[in-house]
Design the sequence.
């Protein structure tokens, strides 16, 4: 795969790619639906997000709903599957926008990244990060870099020893590092997420090791105390 050949030129990045299966971007239909999914998934783990997606689909008999069906779903029904007030409103906002603008997938696929971000962020509740996720995982654009994503920030700071205390300086450093990944920065983000979510945290590992060491020391101390007591008992008995 071309993106792997390119990204592994970065020696540090090569180490995290070798730990993962190759990833292939896909283009998907029904962009409005994936935009709704993206909104529902915000600030949730993948596992919890999948639960919400299934509850949502179940509202429509297990089939993917049209934008009109979503727009016609009562607010209370959307709240009933666990969505917050804000997320339920935003899902309606997306559906109504697509209906009013008569948006088709073909029209969106023809737009540039910048045009799509400007166009879709008109919808209340849809920010740049949300559109970036759509560009990556629905439209299959290969060179999107989610600089504001917390997971990407944490992964880069950890891998490249970037100081996260100054957010502005951190983002500038991130953008500088990401230049070497062009034109495959979407893939780079995907591998960074995969590495962050599945590799052990060195601090956690160290903490666990220290806890084990303390536990072992306590066990030895307890054993030694017990041994001393037994010796005293034997000495007393002989006396």
Sequence:
């Amino acid at each position: 795969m071309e993106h792997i050949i390119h990204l592994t030129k970065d020696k540090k990045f090569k180490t995290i790619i070798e730990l993962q299966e190759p990833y292939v971007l896909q283009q998907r239909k029904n962009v409005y639906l994936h935009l709704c999914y993206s909104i529902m998934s915000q600030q949730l783990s993948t596992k919890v997000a999948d639960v919400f997606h299934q509850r949502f689909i179940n509202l429509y008999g297990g089939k993917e709903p049209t934008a009109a069906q979503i727009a016609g779903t009562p607010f209370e029904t959307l709240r009933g599957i666990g969505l917050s007030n804000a997320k339920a409103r935003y899902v309606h906002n997306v559906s109504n926008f697509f209906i009013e603008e008569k948006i088709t997938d073909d029209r969106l696929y023809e737009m540039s990244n910048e045009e799509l971000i400007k166009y879709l962020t008109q919808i209340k509740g849809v920010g740049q990060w949300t559109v970036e996720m759509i560009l990556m995982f629905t439209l299959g654009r290969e060179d999107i870099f989610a600089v504001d994503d917390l997971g990407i920030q944490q992964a880069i700071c950890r891998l490249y020893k970037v100081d996260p205390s100054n957010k502005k300086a951190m983002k500038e450093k991130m953008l500088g590092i990401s230049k070497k990944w062009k034109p495959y920065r979407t893939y780079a983000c995907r591998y960074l997420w995969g590495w962050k979510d599945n590799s052990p945290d060195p601090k956690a590992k160290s903490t666990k090791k220290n806890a084990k060491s303390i536990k072992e020391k306590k066990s030895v101390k307890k054993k030694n105390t017990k041994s001393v007591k037994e010796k005293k008992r034997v000495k007393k008995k002989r006396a």
About this structure: The chain has 14 helices and no strands. Residues 201-211 have pLDDT under 50 and may be disordered.
